[in-house]
Design brief:
Elements: H1 2-27, E1 31-36, E2 45-50, E3 55-61, E4 66-71, E5 81-86, E6 93-97
Antiparallel strand pairs: 1-4, 2-3, 2-5, 5-6
Amino acid sequence: MGVCIRRIFMLWLIMVMLQCLGKAIIFSEKRYINIQNVLEDNEDLTLHCKSKDDDLGVQHLKPLEHWEFQFYPNFLGRTLFFCSFGWKGCLPLVCYIS
């Protein structure tokens, strides 16, 4: 009797895990990030965005230029990008995008 209950429980646990994983993969919404340089005094903007797995490199934006990227959150919905921004006369600023 005990072996049967353990097998039923394991089967149920596997089904729940697969259902959650399937929903996360199938229904994950793509995230769109658009960054535009609207600094005053026609300053150039330098930015660098990366996650634990992806480094998107350093970008240089002239006034009113924009740069964009997109990603799907991982299956747990915990993808986190770190973006640092800098321009003349300013200390770097770091933002978090999830």
